[in-house]
Amino acid sequence: MNNDISINQVKYSKVNQLDFNNIPLGKTFTDHMFVCDYENGEWVNPRIEPLQPIATHPAAMALHYGQAIFEGMKAYLDPDGVPMLFRPEKNAQRINESADRMGMPAFPEELFLEGLKQYVAVEKNWIPPQEGSALYLRPFMYADEAFIGMRAATHYKFVIIASPSGPLYNKRIKLWAEKQYIRAAQGGTGEAKAAGNYAAAIRPTEIAKSKGYDQVLWLDAAEHQYIQEVGTMNIFFRVNDEFITPKLDGSVLKGVTRDSVMKLLQHLGYKVTEKLISLNEIKEASNNGSLKEAFGTGTAVGIAYIEEIGSDEDTIFVSEESPVAEKINDLLNQIKTGKVEDPFNWMVKAEIVTAS
Amino acid sequence: MNNDISINQVKYSKVNQLDFNNIPLGKTFTDHMFVCDYENGEWVNPRIEPLQPIATHPAAMALHYGQAIFEGMKAYLDPDGVPMLFRPEKNAQRINESADRMGMPAFPEELFLEGLKQYVAVEKNWIPPQEGSALYLRPFMYADEAFIGMRAATHYKFVIIASPSGPLYNKRIKLWAEKQYIRAAQGGTGEAKAAGNYAAAIRPTEIAKSKGYDQVLWLDAAEHQYIQEVGTMNIFFRVNDEFITPKLDGSVLKGVTRDSVMKLLQHLGYKVTEKLISLNEIKEASNNGSLKEAFGTGTAVGIAYIEEIGSDEDTIFVSEESPVAEKINDLLNQIKTGKVEDPFNWMVKAEIVTAS
Questions:
Q1: Is residue B203 within 8 Å of residue B166, measured between CB atoms?
Q2: For residue B169, with 0-12 CB atoms within 10 Å meaning exposed, 13-18 middle and 19 or more buried, which class applies?
Q3: What are the boundaries of the signal sequence (chains A, B) (predicted)?
Q4: pLDDT above 50 for A287
């Protein structure tokens, strides 16, 4: 494998066309993409090139057999204007755990990190400086071999694209505890960040929204009783002064924000327990007054405060305020933007390492 | 919606370059593709055009969130050389059942059938005349909107491509009863022909093959005891003179071959029962001598004869011969190629309706 990344920059950046105070969600892309091809058993030709459509054979296996995985991460500017990445090594590891479950080749972690740093350095001007804004990064891998038949592909592309995202308003959300549809079951692909998991969630989420809820609370496949995740986020509950979150059982995504929130809560002196959590247990905690807060965690939103959980049977009231979750959210944002000390050395600078 | 299909044919067909007696599996494609776009809430611009790579934005949602479904079917030549389709209306219906589960728009069944007929007529010379050969057809739909975010896409492509396939040797297969990984769970997407289901099966199938087995026998997600499917096929067991097959519970694919085999077995006077089938029940039937045959059914292979089922605990011997399954397979093949009467009026002619 040759780790030398070739860089072909655009002559004229489109960044001046973007109003950083009014960024359309999810459909503005930066000038470039990072691309690497897998062929003959190795990753070759890592390159940063102008963002453009990729000529894709209609039999490209990802479109038929779903070998497609991704990561989500964000780049921020520190007070000196240096681009910063949040725990990128966690994403480099996780995409390979996803690859393993989906029968896809591992992508070298070193090249993942180096490619990401160089890419972010090239796209530095696209990182919104506004409070709460960031450059969303989307590394992904998919099977692009043209083949009709069920087997692992032999040709893949690893790509990173980026989209600036404006400040998020963390409105309090209402969850629908879904007892018919599931997102994932043990032995399935729930722990992988695989395209198919997200596709499975789209219709149930639409149904929940039509009932007036914001997100689906996903329950286990066997009994529809044990809590897995919320929407595309992990979930935490505060019962008195203990925080509980579903344990990783193979059907729960190993969230980087989940792990970070656990460490920050412990850093602040709270007890955090990973365990099997039933909906009934949360209902009892609500009834007896010990349920103080609940929130979702994920890269896209950060922390989403949960107000109530509805289901076919009843409504579980959570809370009108989320003081500890807000404190954690603020702390996390300040660490990511270099405004406070980084107690765990999470931040990595994306420095310019090549002349363009 | 405008159902008029525009046709742009290649000047020179590549069909003469193909050795019909030695067709490489899954990687030879015909000259054209059928394409239709979904935009602004409707399907527009149905067209048959030269097969070529499709310019695909790297943020195309199918590559990230897995909204991708497909169908598999085959075209045959009848003794007069007329192209024939096998129960195409079943595939037209099923792709829309898949679309519904995956939050994707329905494709008009009439246009599916008309597009398919015209497409097959254009590609008629690609249908191998050899016994047991056919032109495999792959209708599929995927989200091609460039968007980062979890919601149903607003832009899709519906495409049909085709690949000639040579005669299949139906070797007797050994199954591995998989008790760790699952293909699908109730409430999931198992009944949909969705890309993600296939991706989930790739790694477990590789593991089964490394143990010396040909395909995975998929069991239920909750107890790893009830039989769902085999590989990408439905499964039947013959216990004495009764045929049993897993009932459709939302995690089993509604196979067109499954339905056809059930009807043919009944036509020949056999009792067929759809029910919950446990691995223990099959083991007991093997032990007491009442298990006579087992076979998989699917479009790609037709009927696959099962010899034995291995698992962590023991091996269930099925049979060394599959006389009834072979009779059904022959009958099915003769119906598809117009060599015997078509008792259920399954075959549909793909006649040339436009001058080229």
A1: no
A2: exposed
A3: none
A4: yes
Pairing of strands B6-7, A347-349: unpaired
Are residues B113 and B193 located together in one domain of the fold?
Answer: no
Q: What is the mean pLDDT of residues A84-109?
A: 98
User: Is pLDDT larger for residue B217 or for residue A166?
Assistant: B217
Question: In this predicted structure, what is the pLDDT of residue B353?
Answer: 55
Are A25 and A161 part of one and the same domain?
yes
Boundaries of domain holding B317: 173-321
Confidence of residue A356 (pLDDT cuts 50, 70, 90): very low
Number of separate helices (H) and strands (E) present in chain A: 7, 19
Quick check: A161 and B59 CB within 8 A?
yes
Answer whether B163 sits within 8 Å of A25, measured CB to CB. no
A36 interfaces chain B, CB cutoff of 8 Å: no
As a whole number, mean pLDDT of residues B58-72 equals: 98
Q: Give alpha helix (H) positions in B30-108.
A: 62-65, 88-101
Mutation choice for B interface testing from A57, A65, A157 by most B CBs within 10 A: A65
Q: A residues 311-340 near B, CB within 8 Å?
A: none
Q: Which residue has the tokens 């015997």?
A: B340
Tell whether B189 lies on the interface with A, counting CB pairs under 8 A: yes
pLDDT tens digits, residue range B292-338?
A: 999 999 998 899 999 999 998 899 999 999 999 999 999 999 999 99
Same structural domain for residues B48 and B160? yes
**Touching check for B269 and chain A: CB below 8 Å?**
no
Is the pLDDT at B356 greater than 50? The verdict is: no
Q: Which CATH number characterizes residue A161's domain?
A: 3.30.470.10
The answer on A224 and A101 residing in a single domain is no
Enumerate the β-bridge partners of residue B194. B69
Q: For residue B342, tell me if it sits in a domain.
A: no
pLDDT score at A131: 87
Contacting residues of A for B68, CB less than 8 Å apart: 62-64, 66, 195, 199
Judged by DSSP in three states, A57 sits in coil
Chain A residues in contact with B150 by the CB 8 A cut-off are 198, 201-202, 205, 231-232
